[in-house]
C-alpha cells in the first residue's frame, strides 16, 4: 500500500506501524520520479501530441506530471518541437532558472537533430543537445502519445537509478 | 471590374507610373507600378468609387532578379468582388520603397516581415523593426546570395 509498494523490498517495516526504514536514495528518487512537473510550454506540432498526452485519454497526470507556468516550479522540460535560434536563447535561459535536479526530454526529430530543417533551416538549432544536456530522446515526427509516454517512463527509470553517493551525468 | 479596365483606368490617372500588364502567365494577372508612386496608387485603388480595394490580402517580399527586389501586393475588394496583383521593383543597390501602412493597416506587419527577410526599406512605416528574426540577427536570409553564418550567439548553425 502506498509508498511501501513503490519502494522495493529493502523497505523494512516495524510491527507497530508508522515507522519504516529505507535508504535516502530510494525515498528521494521515488518522490522525484513520481512528481515530474513539466514546464508549461510547447514549440510546434509535437506540442499538439504533448497536449493530447496530457488530456484525458492518455492522462499524464497519473504519472504525477502536471504543467507549471514558472521555471522555478518545474523538474522537467519536454522540448516539444522545432527549436529556432531565437527560441533556443530563451530555452537556455529558462533551463538556467530551473532548480536542480532538472531533466530534459527531447521530443521529435526537430528537437533531436533539426528534423526536416537540418539542411536549409538557417534559423533552426540542429538539436537541443547543442545547448542543454538531454536525458531522453523520443524519435518521431511527431511521436505518438504512446512514444512520449515510453520516453517519460524511461526518464523515470533513469531517476530511479540515481544515487546521492555517485555523480550521474 | 476586369483587369484590363483597371489597368486602363490606372494608366489614365498615373501615366508612366504604371508599368506593363502581364496576363499571359499561368498565375493571376499582375501589373507593375513604379516604386516611388506606390503610396499614391494604393490610396487611389482604395478610395476610387469603381475600384474600392478595401483589403490587402497579402504583401510579400521577393528576391526578383539579378538587380531587383520586388514587393508584391495582393488586393481584393469585398464590396465589388474583384482582385488585383501589383508588383513594384526595388533596386538592390538602394532598396527603398514607400510604405502603404497608412492606406491598409494590415501592411504594417507585412512590411516588417519583408524588411526582416528580404531587406527592403519601407519609408513611412511607423515601426520598421525585425518581426520574426532576433533583433541582433545580421543579414536578410531570403536573399538568394545569403550565406548561413557558422554561429549565432555561440550556437553552431550548420548541421
Q: Key features?
A:
heterodimer; A: 6 helices; B: alpha/beta; Beta Polymerase, domain 2; 5-stranded mixed beta sheet; two-stranded parallel ribbon; 21% helix
Q: Can you tell me the CATH superfamily of chain B?
A: NADH:ubiquinone oxidoreductase Nqo5 subunit
Largest β sheet strand count, sense and barrel closure of chain A: 3 strands, parallel
- The geometry of chain B reads as elongated
Structural class designation of chain B = alpha/beta
Helix content of chain A: 25-40%
Quote the distance from N terminus to C terminus of chain B: 51 Å
Major sheet size, sense and barrel closure of chain B: 5 strands, mixed
Unreliable runs of chain B = none
- How many whole angstroms does the radius of gyration of chain B measure? 17 Å
Order of helices and strands of chain A: HEEHEHEEHEHEH
Question: What is the CATH architecture term of chain B?
Answer: 2-Layer Sandwich
What's a quick, concise take on this entry?
Chain A is of the alpha/beta class.
Q: Could you walk me through the main structural features you see in this protein, from its secondary elements to its overall organization?
A:
- The complex is a heterodimer of chains A (169) and B (159).
- Chain A has 169 residues and is of the alpha/beta class.
- In chain A, 36% of the residues lie in helices and 12% in strands.
- In chain A, strands 5-6-7 form a three-stranded parallel sheet. In chain A, strands 1-2 form a two-stranded antiparallel ribbon.
- In chain A, helix 3 packs across helix 6.
- Chain A is elongated and about 65 Å long.
- Chain B has one domain (3-156): Beta Polymerase, domain 2.
- Chain B has helices at 3-14, 38-47, 107-117, and strands at residues 18-22, 30-33, 55-63, 68-76, 83-91, 96-98, 121-123, 151-152, 155-156.
- In chain B, the strands form three sheets. Chain B has a five-stranded mixed sheet. Chain B has a two-stranded parallel ribbon with strand order 6-7. Chain B has a two-stranded antiparallel ribbon with strand order 8-9.
- In chain B, strand 1 and strand 2 form a beta hairpin.
- The mean pLDDT of chain B is 92.
- Chain A binds chain B through residues 85-86, 88-89, 113-114, 118-119, 122-123, 125-126, 130-131, and chain B through 133-134, 141, 146, 148, 152-153, 155-159.
Amino acid at each position: 500500500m502506498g509508498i511501501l509498494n513503490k519502494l522495493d523490498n529493502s523497505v523494512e517495516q516495524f510491527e507497530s506501524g508508522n515507522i519504516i526504514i529505507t535508504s535516502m536514495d530510494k525515498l528521494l528518487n521515488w518522490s522525484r520520479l513520481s512528481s515530474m512537473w513539466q514546464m508549461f510550454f510547447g514549440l510546434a506540432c509535437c506540442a499538439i501530441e504533448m497536449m493530447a498526452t496530457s488530456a484525458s485519454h492518455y492522462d499524464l497526470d497519473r504519472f504525477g506530471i502536471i504543467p507549471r507556468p514558472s521555471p522555478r516550479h518545474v523538474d522537467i522540460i519536454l522540448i516539444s518541437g522545432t527549436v529556432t535560434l531565437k527560441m533556443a536563447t530563451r530555452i537556455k535561459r529558462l533551463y538556467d532558472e530551473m532548480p536542480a535536479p532538472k531533466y530534459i526530454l527531447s521530443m521529435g526529430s526537430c528537437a533531436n537533430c533539426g528534423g526536416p530543417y537540418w539542411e536549409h533551416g538557417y534559423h533552426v538549432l540542429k538539436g537541443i543537445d547543442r545547448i542543454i544536456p538531454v536525458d531522453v530522446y523520443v524519435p518521431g515526427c511527431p511521436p505518438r502519445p504512446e512514444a512520449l509516454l515510453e520516453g517519460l517512463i524511461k526518464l523515470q527509470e533513469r531517476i530511479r537509478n540515481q544515487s546521492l553517493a555517485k555523480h550521474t551525468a | 471590374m476586369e483587369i484590363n479596365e483597371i489597368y486602363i483606368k490606372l494608366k489614365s490617372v498615373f501615366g508612366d507610373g504604371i508599368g506593363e500588364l502581364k496576363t499571359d502567365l499561368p498565375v493571376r494577372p499582375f501589373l507593375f507600378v513604379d516604386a516611388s508612386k506606390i503610396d499614391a496608387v494604393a490610396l487611389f485603388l482604395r478610395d476610387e468609387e469603381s475600384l474600392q480595394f478595401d483589403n490587402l490580402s497579402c504583401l510579400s517580399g521577393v528576391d526578383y532578379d539579378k538587380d531587383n527586389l520586388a514587393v508584391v501586393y495582393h488586393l481584393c475588394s469585398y464590396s465589388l468582388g474583384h482582385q488585383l496583383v501589383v508588383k513594384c521593383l526595388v533596386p538592390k543597390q538602394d532598396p527603398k520603397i514607400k510604405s502603404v501602412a497608412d492606406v491598409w493597416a494590415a501592411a504594417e506587419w507585412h512590411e516588417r516581415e519583408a524588411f526582416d527577410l528580404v531587406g527592403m526599406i519601407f519609408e513611412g512605416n511607423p515601426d520598421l523593426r525585425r518581426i520574426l528574426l532576433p533583433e541582433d540577427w545580421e543579414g536578410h536570409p531570403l536573399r538568394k546570395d545569403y550565406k548561413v553564418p557558422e554561429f549565432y550567439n555561440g550556437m553552431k548553425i550548420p548541421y
